[in-house]
C-alpha cells in the first residue's frame, strides 16, 4: 500500500514539534571528548540526558521483556499463528503489538507519524534513515505502488529540518518482482562460471562476485530472459532511475538494503549500475550494503572499490553483519555446500572490523562515504579509535554510525556525544506491512537482546538517578 504526503500532513509535521538545529545540545557535550580516541559509555546521565522519562520507561520494559527468550518465542508464535488471523483474537494481538513492540521498533503508521518520530530523534541529536516498510513485490502493479511510497519518502525528508534524515532506504525487492530478481541472479552467477555467457541486457556495473563467492544456487545453465522478462526488467530499471533522479535533485542519499544470497547478485547489479550513473564529484547518491558475515565480503569489497576507483566513481557503502544467518546455512546445506556465513561469531566480528578499517582509510584518503551499522560496542570503539588515528576531521562528514530504531540507544548517544554523525534505521508503515520486519528482528536478535544487558543496565541507572532526583525534592 503506497501513501501520499500531502501539504497538510507536511504542515502538521512542521508545526507539531519545536525544532532546533541537529546536534545543538550534543555538540557542547562532545567538545571535551573529541580529543580522546575512546568511546565513553559510562555516564548514564550524559547518554540519556535528552531522552524523556516516558520513553526510557517504555524502552526499559521492552528490553526486559525481549531478554526473556520464552516471551519472544510466544510473541513470534502469535505473529505467525492462524489463531490470530481474524476476529477478536487478531484485534487483541494487533492492539498489543501496536502499543509495545511496534511502537518501540517502528516510527509510526503513516508519514505524519514518521515525521514526528524523526523530529523527536532530531531533538536528542540523532538522525533518521527513513525506511518505508514494504518488502517483497511479486508483480508490476505492486512494484509501481511501492515506488510511489519511496518517492514520497524523499518528499517527506525534504519537508523536515535539514540533516534530520540522513538516508532514504530502498529495498530493490519492492520495486522489482522477486521471481525476476531470482532469474537475474541465476544469469549473473552463470556468467561468473562461464565468462563467454552473454547477457545482452546487462548495463555497466562493478564486480558482483569474488573468486570465493558461493555459486551453488545456480546448478544448471539458465535460459535467457523471455521477452516478457526483458520488458519487466526495463520497467524495474525505470523505477530505480526515477527514484535515483529524485534523490539526486533533493541531494538525499539512497541506501539500498541487502537481502539473502538468492537475490543479492541482482540487487548488487542494480545498485552498482545506478551508482555509476549518479555518484559524482565525491557525492555518492546511491549506497550499497555489504554483509560482513559472508566469507567473501572482504574480497568483494576490495574488487568493487578498486573497479570504482578506476572508473572515477565515488562509492558509498553501508557495512552490516547480516540478518539471514539461519536461512543461508539451511539453503547451503540443502545443496550440499558449506555455509557462506563465517564459522564463528568472532570471525564475523573480525570481518566487520577489518572491512570497517579498510573503508575508513579509503574515505579518509579519497572520495566516498561510509555507514557503519553496528550494535557491537567493541566495533564502535575500534572505529572511533581508527577515525582518530586517521584524523577525525578527514572522516567526520563522510562517516555515519547507525543502529536500528529501538536498539542500542546507549551506543548511539555515546557515539553522538563523541562528535560523530549517528542515525537510527526507522521503518514505518501500517502494522500489517511491517510485520515481516518485526518477525525478523525477533528471530535474528533474540540472542543478542538476551545476552547483552548493557542497554538495560544503563537505562535502569538513568531511571534510578531521575527517581532519586525527584524524591530529593520532597
Would you mind describing this structure in some detail?
- The chain has helices at about 5-15, 25-30, 45-50, 55-65, 70-80, 85-100, 100-105, 110-125, 140-160, 180-195, 225-250, 265-280, 295-310, 325-335, 345-365, 375-390, 390-395, 410-415, 430-450, 455-470; strands at about 125-130, 165-170, 255, 285-290, 315-320, 370-375, 400-405, 420-430.
- It has a domain at about 105-435: Alpha-Beta Barrel (TIM Barrel).
- The longest helix is centred in the middle third of the chain and has 24 residues, at about 225-250.
- Strand 1, helix 9 and strand 2 (about 165-170) form a beta-alpha-beta unit.
- Helix 4 (about 55-65) packs antiparallel against helix 20, helix 9 (about 140-160) packs parallel to helix 11 (about 225-250) and helix 10 packs across helix 12.
- Strands 1-2-3-4-5-6-7-8 form an eight-stranded parallel β-barrel, surrounded by six helices.
- The chain contains 20 helices and eight strands.
- With about 475 residues, it is an alpha/beta fold.
- The model is unreliable at about 1-35 (pLDDT under 50).
- Helix content is about 55%, strand content about 10%.
N-to-C order of helices and strands: HHHHHHHHEHEHHEHEHEHHEHHEHEHH
- The best one-word shape is globular
Strand content: 5-15%
Q: CATH class of the domain at 107-437, anyone?
A: Alpha Beta
Distance between the termini: 52 Å
Total beta-strand segments: 8
Q: CATH topology of the domain at 107-437, which one?
A: TIM Barrel
Question: What does the largest sheet look like?
Answer: 8 strands, parallel, barrel
Number of helices: 20
Helix content: 55-70%
CATH architecture annotation name of the domain at 107-437: Alpha-Beta Barrel
**What is the CA-based Rg, rounded?**
22 Å
- Helix-strand category: alpha/beta
Poorly predicted runs of 5 or more residues: 1-36
Instruction: Give the strand line-up of the largest sheet.
Output: 1-2-3-4-5-6-7-8
Mean pLDDT: 87
User: What's the multimeric state?
Assistant: single chain
Keywords: FAD, Flavoprotein, Oxidoreductase, Proline metabolism
Family: Belongs to the proline oxidase family.
Domain Proline dehydrogenase: 164-448
GO molecular function: FAD binding; proline dehydrogenase activity
Amino acid at each position: 500500500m503506497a501513501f501520499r504526503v500531502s501539504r497538510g500532513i507536511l504542515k502538521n509535521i512542521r508545526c507539531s514539534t519545536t525544532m532546533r538545529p541537529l546536534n545543538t545540545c550534543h555538540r557542547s557535550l562532545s567538545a571535551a571528548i573529541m580529543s580522546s580516541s575512546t568511546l565513553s559509555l559510562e555516564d548514564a546521565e550524559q547518554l540519556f540526558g535528552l531522552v524523556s522519562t516516558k520513553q526510557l520507561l517504555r524502552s526499559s520494559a521492552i528490553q526486559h521483556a525481549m531478554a526473556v527468550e520464552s516471551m519472544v518465542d510466544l510473541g513470534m508464535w502469535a505473529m505467525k499463528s492462524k489463531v490470530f488471523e481474524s476476529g477478536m483474537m487478531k484485534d487483541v494481538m494487533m492492539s498489543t503489538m501496536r502499543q509495545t513492540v511496534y511502537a518501540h521498533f517502528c516510527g509510526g503508521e503513516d508519514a505524519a507519524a514518521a515525521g514526528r518520530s524523526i523530529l523527536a530523534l532530531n531533538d536528542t541529536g540523532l538522525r533518521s534513515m527513513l525506511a518505508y516498510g514494504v518488502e517483497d513485490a511479486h508483480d508490476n502493479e505492486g512494484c509501481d505502488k511501492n515506488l510511489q511510497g519511496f518517492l514520497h519518502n524523499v518528499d517527506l525528508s525534504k519537508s523536515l529540518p535539514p540533516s534530520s534524515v540522513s538516508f532514504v532506504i530502498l529495498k530493490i525487492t519492492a520495486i522489482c518482482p522477486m521471481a525476476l530478481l531470482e532469474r537475474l541472479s541465476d544469469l549473473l552467477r552463470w556468467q561468473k562460471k562461464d565468462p563467454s555467457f552473454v547477457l545482452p541486457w546487462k548495463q555497466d556495473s562493478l564486480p558482483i562476485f569474488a573468486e570465493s563467492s558461493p555459486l551453488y544456487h545456480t546448478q544448471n545453465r539458465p535460459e535467457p530472459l523471455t521477452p516478457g522478462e526483458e520488458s519487466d526488467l526495463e520497467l524495474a530499471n525505470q523505477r530505480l532511475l526515477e527514484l535515483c533522479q529524485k534523490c539526486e535533485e533533493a541531494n538525499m542519499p539512497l541506501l539500498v538494503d541487502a537481502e539473502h544470497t538468492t537475490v543479492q547478485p541482482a540487487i548488487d547489479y542494480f545498485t552498482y549500475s545506478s551508482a555509476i550513473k549518479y555518484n559524482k564529484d565525491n557525492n555518492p547518491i546511491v549506497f550499497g550494503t555489504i554483509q560482513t558475515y559472508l566469507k567473501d565480503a572482504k574480497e568483494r569489497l576490495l574488487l568493487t572499490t578498486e573497479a570504482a576507483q578506476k572508473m572515477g566513481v565515488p562509492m558509498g557503502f553501508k557495512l552490516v553483519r547480516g540478518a539471514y544467518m539461519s536461512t543461508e546455512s539451511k539453503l547451503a546445506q540443502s545443496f550440499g555446500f558449506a555455509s557462506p556465513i563465517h564459522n564463528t561469531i568472532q570471525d564475523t566480528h573480525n570481518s566487520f572490523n577489518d572491512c570497517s578499517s579498510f573503508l575508513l582509510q579509503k574515505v579518509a584518503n579519497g572520495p566516498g562515504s561510509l555507514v557503519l551499522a553496528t550494535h557491537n560496542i567493541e566495533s564502535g570503539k575500534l572505529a572511533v579509535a581508527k577515525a582518530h588515528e586517521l584524523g577525525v576531521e578527514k572522516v567526520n562528514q563522510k562517516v555515519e554510525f547507525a543502529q536500528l530504531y529501538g536498539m542500542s540507544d546507549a551506543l548511539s548517544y555515546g557515539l553522538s556525544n563523541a562528535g560523530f554523525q549517528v542515525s537510527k534505521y526507522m521503518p514505518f508503515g501500517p502494522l500489517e506491512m511491517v510485520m515481516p520486519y518485526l518477525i525478523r528482528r525477533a528471530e535474528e536478535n533474540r540472542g543478542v537482546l538476551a545476552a547483552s544487558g548493557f542497554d538495560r543496565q544503563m537505562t535502569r541507572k538513568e531511571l534510578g538517578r531521575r527517581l532519586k532526583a525527584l524524591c530529593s525534592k520532597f
